[in-house]
Amino acid sequence: MTTRIDARFAQLKREGRSAFVTFLMAGDPDYETSLAIIKALPKSGADVIEIGMPFTDPMADGPSIQAAGVRALRGGMTLKKTLELVRAFRKDDDATPLVLMGYYNPIYIYGVDKFLADAKSAGVDGLIIVDLPPEEDTELCVPALKAGLNFIRLATPTTDDKRLAAVLANTSGFVYYVSITGITGAAAADSSAVSQAVARIKRHTSLPVCVGFGIKTPQAARAIAEHADGAVVGTALVDALRASLDAEGQATAKTINAVAELAASLAQGVRGAQQAAE
Amino acid sequence: MTPARPNSYRSGPDERGHFGIFGGRFVAETLMPLILDLEKAYAEAKADPAFQAEMNGYLRDYVGRPSPLYLAERLTEHLGGAKIYLKREELNHTGSHKVNNVLGQIMLARRMGKRRIIAETGAGQHGVATATLCARFGLECVVYMGAVDVARQQPNVIRMEMLGAKVFPVQSGSRTLKDAMNEALRDWVTNVHNTFYCIGTVAGPHPYPMMVRDFQSVIGDETRKQLQEAEGRLPDSLIACVGGGSNAIGLFHPFLDDPSVEIYGVEAAGHGLTQLHAASIAGGRPGVLHGNRTYLLMNDDGQIQDAHSISAGLDYPGIGPEHSWLHEVGRVKYLSATDDEALAAFQLLSRLEGIIPALESAHAIAKVMELAPQRRKDHLMVVNLSGRGDKDVPQVGDLLRGKNS
Fold first, then answer.
1. I need a labelling partner for B363 at 20 to 30 A (CA). Which of A90, A101, A225, B257 fits?
2. Euclidean distance between CA atoms A233 and A236, whole angstroms
3. Is the pLDDT of residue B2 over 60?
4. Lowest pLDDT segment from A2-6, A162-166, B1-5, B304-308
5. What are the distances in angstroms from CA A252 to CA A71, A113, A256, B215?
6. Minimal-distance CA residue of chain B relative to A132
7. Chain A residues touching B179 at Cβ < 8 A
8. Shortest CA distance to A146 belongs to which of A165, A120, A164?
9. Helix crossing, A112-122 with A79-90: angle to 10°?
């Protein structure tokens, strides 16, 4: 079964370049603005879009993404509305892969089987669930794979070679390498360490390896993209969004462009890596 | 659906950390290797007689164990029913049961070569115990505490700082114990190489609920022996307050397979179960947070709700997974006590026995006030007096003067 994620990475391989992967929180700061931003991202050069599912207790996220979740929840966002957002995006775009990222409890409460059916029909391609390691694969990972969704696993600097096999066993779509031990938005890893880590993971899998956590500038995105199949940027985009809001945390006329413009310059950085590699 | 009655209530968890459907290891991949290391190190330490002997030495000479089992004559007389014994955990060094668990974990951290200890704390009792043992063994200590709790439990904040710990007030979320735990997990995921996370209750990912329970079971083991000496038999009932539930499981666990013993856990009902409260079993449902599946307070979208209790130590929207299981299999009955009931119990015990209980423990006393009069005079009731109330004196003083209600 080929998913939109598989198709996109195959296409990028033919083009000889790495993916620019964006992350923003669904419903930040409100549903309409969030939908408009996500619709603008492919035009800005996003190859894969990760959409955060807001959760009250995001244990692996730094202050920026925590605050994005709080804004979204205050704006009335729910998991059901996140799926509506995906469905609305899919009306105009049937090619860009969409990955939902978040924590397990809202899905568990929604009901695993119902969630997978609704996500698939809305046009979700993959899931990244931070608090579901391979030890808990029977919860969601195995049913997701059966439902035809990719389950994208996080590999980290603490994932040693012995563990890597278990981590990769039920992974599909791509592997998300978390380049540092830490929370989102923390300091970036240096690119030589990332290069070694990506090489190590690639000895165990033929899946694309995307790298995230701590990439904030076009230069950093380019440096990472030279060593990986994709560079993921989240906190920097969320920060740009926040900086465009008014004093009450509401969207302004600048909000959509603020994110789209930063995304475009980051995409340039990632695309610059291709020339560097050639 | 009630799960089948097991052969033993004391055999859990299974090798994957499950008590029935509860428990598990719901953590980020970064932490998974650490949790597996911890599980292995704990299994080795548990089997090592030298580790046990060293721990028993500190429990006796540093903590001051065994803690007395004290017949509360005036409380018994006042309530006119069951004969009430208090398990005096409040007499331990640092003033609560928390030190039993912290001692075990700090000795394990030393064995694993970890020099930096982090902890979350609600009322500050676990933070104080952690700061104390870090001082004793020369380890760096960082304590995360919700900003609301920092304000209402000032005496404990000052104690932790005097002991050399760094206390971080947590400003996210409801700024209480739940958020302190989030922040401690964020620290741990960042400082994986040198840091040991000393969790204060029977919650979190496997092996914590099992390990903390094992360290706290000294409470029930001593009670069993002490009551045998005093009365020549088993207790008829046990009562303890439950936030995460470490003092409760410590008292309960050794008695779970004695069917004649009635067991009651007391959750914090805050302003009442139809209003803001912290009673996860009474008002919540199973979900996943902080590394385990357990009863949680949440809304229909799976978002965790803010808990409320007068007692910072019970102000948590979850409960340890083993309690969730003991509830579902029906071995333990979970009751709840409101802020007002706890406050009344706090005053009653102070006046009748000359013992000022922690507000947490006062929740258990509140249900003793309800249950003891319904029992015969030969009924032996043991209540865990898990902590002393010194830390609560300023807050309760304000409440009683009507300043802060």
1. B257
2. 7
3. no
4. B1-5
5. 14, 38, 8, 55
6. B26
7. 57
8. A120
9. 20
Which among B202, B199, B97 is positioned nearest to B144, based on CA atoms?
Answer: B199
Q: Is A248 a catalytic residue?
A: no
User: What percentage of residues in chain B have a pLDDT greater than 70?
Assistant: 98
* Annotation says A246 is catalytic: no
pLDDT in tens, B149-163: 999 889 999 999 999
Domains of chain A, CATH where assigned:
4-273 (3.20.20.70)
B30 touching A (Cβ < 8 Å): yes
CA-closest candidate to residue B258, choices B228, B235, B239: B235
pLDDT of B404 above 70? no
Single-letter amino acid code for the residue at B113: G
> What span, in angstroms and rounded, lies between the C-alpha atoms of A223 and B310?
52
> If you average pLDDT over every residue of chain B, what do you get?
96
pLDDT tens readout for residues A194-227: 999 999 999 999 999 999 988 999 999 999 999 9
Q: What band does B173 get if pLDDT is binned at 50, 70 and 90?
A: confident
B81, pLDDT greater than 50: yes
Coil vs helix vs strand at A23: strand
- What span, in angstroms and rounded, lies between the C-alpha atoms of B315 and B175? 11
Cα gap B329→B13, rounded to integer Å: 14
Q: Kindly tell me the number of DSSP H helices and DSSP E strands found in chain B.
A: 16, 14
pLDDT at res. B38: 97
Give the N- to C-terminal CA distance of chain B in Å, as an integer.
41
Q: How far is A115 from chain B (nearest CA, A)?
A: 12
Quickly list DSSP for B110-151: HHTT--EEEEEESSSHHHHHHHHHHHHHT-EEEEEEEHHHHH
Q: CA A48 → CA A85, A152, A274, B11, B63, distances in Å? A: 16, 13, 17, 47, 57
E strand or H helix at B292 = strand B291-296
Residues in chain B: 405
* Per-residue model confidence as pLDDT tens digits over B343-357: 999 999 999 999 999
pLDDT at A275: 47
Distance, in Å, from the CA atom of A138 to the CA atom of B251, rounded to the nearest integer, reads 34
Distance CA B344, CA B349 (A): 9
Contact (CB, 8 A) for B348 and B337: no
Q: If you search the block for the tokens 């890893």, which residue do you land on?
A: A189
Contact B186 A60 (CB under 8 A): yes
* Across A100-124, average pLDDT: 98
Nearest C-alpha of chain B: how many angstroms from A228? 20
Asked if A159 and A167 touch (Cβ cutoff 8 Å), the reply is yes
**Active-site residue (options: A6, A30, A47, A50):** A50
Q: What is the 3-state secondary structure (H, E, C) of B198-227?
A: CCCCCCCCCCHHHHHHHHHCHHHHHHHHHH
Structure tokens, A161: 């070679």
pLDDT at B4: 65
Ramachandran angles phi, psi of A250, nearest 5°: -95, 155
